Amino acid sequence: MERQNSAEEALILLRIRLCTPNFIFSLSSDSPDSNYSKLKFILSSSVVEACNNSVLLLGPRGCGKIAVLELVLEDLFKEFPDMITVIKLNGLLHNDDNCAIKASLSPCRNFIKLILVPYAVFLFVDEIARQLCVEHELIFSKMASFDDNSQFMVAMLHAYTYLPYLITRECGLAHKTVIFVLDEFDLFTQGKQRLLYSLLDAMQSVTSQAAVVGISCRLDADQLLEKRVRSRFSHRKLLFLPPSKEDLQRLLKQILLLPSDSTLPQDYIVEFNARLLNILAGERFKDIMDKLSCSDPTINNLLRFSAVCFMDLKSGFISLENFKAALSSIQRQPKLECLKDCSILELYILVCMKRLEVKEQESYNFNAVMKEYRSIHESFQTSDHYSRSVCLRAFEHLLQREVIAFLDNRGHSQSVEFRPVKLLLSPHELYQGLKSYRSCP
């Protein structure tokens, strides 16, 4: 019973770690070459040196761009209290002149929900003015025009005490840095880019204290900028690359190892960590990590690969079988499910197509597949020999199930036998499908 209680407490601790992005990315924040350190230096210089900066965070989804940014902002709020204002905008909400939506603040700071508004250009500046007013406890008027809000935004950036008529009391923002976070940055580049130009042009004054952080999954996001906008952009880019297999394994080790200073029994911690290290050092676990990194090497995928969910509370430890179960739960295998329902003849056709690809035959049709099928039958003297008409029906069935597909859309007038086709299965998927097929010869 005591062992089970310790296992439940350890399980809670590990789940909290996996659900806390700040903990995950703080593990690699100590390195001076990390994106965390570089981004923190860029933003802190905007606060300390009163300069304006702009930077793009680029990388695939799930690589931790937003998590690292939130970690940096949290640290900056601690270091420079009452000196930073964060304005968050999203390209999905504010990029389209015809989107007819408007962002409004909820009681949570800078959180966005939707209501109606006419134009996105007004929407962009209007949302900045709204968030600045809420941040500094000012009254925002819905009747303010685009020019009023533009002047107010520039006044805020330049740290003046200029206030249009929509503000009911004075505001001094000296030594205050405004950080603009533009999520889905590439969507802001659509159209005439008046939104980006307005913001970056307002930052050009030497008296302004501001920074723009763009977040995008497109690596060419800076190349989408117009010339006038590009000239006002600093061209700083931080590339978030998916970690290597070794880095993923090292991160997983740091997440799953129990801390020695926890309230858990010391003998349980020692045994738990010893068993875990033994598993991580094994070759079978390395094979699991190979499959994981081949499918999706991002940190987000690693966090979903949670053997913790399959941990046996009775034993109180994580086993290799738990990692295997976690891998199978996140791997999408719809094609393998299709192979389970295939006939022996259909499997023969798929193997013949794979053999043609191994022979570096770039294009092949049903006739080429039949020729390969006959060569297999003659070489191995198999009893599974079917007529051409039966093979054609099996071939058409594979096309209907989208296990194979035509190479292009041309040749609709041609017969099925003569149109080039391609296999939609990888060698690994075909091998696993044949391996799991119990009656496969």
From TrEMBL:
Any one GO molecular function term: DNA replication origin binding
Subcellular location: Nucleus
GO cellular component: a single term: nuclear origin of replication recognition complex
Gene3D superfamilies per record: P-loop containing nucleotide triphosphate hydrolases
Pfam families the record matches: ORC4_C
Keyword annotations of the record: DNA replication, DNA-binding, Nucleus
Origin recognition complex subunit 4 C-terminal domain span: 251-432
Signal peptide start and end residues: none
Single Gene Ontology BP annotation: DNA replication initiation
Family as reported in the entry's similarity comment: Belongs to the ORC4 family.
Protein name: Origin recognition complex subunit 4 C-terminal domain-containing protein
Organism: Escallonia herrerae
Biological classification of the source: Eukaryota, Viridiplantae, Streptophyta, Embryophyta, Tracheophyta
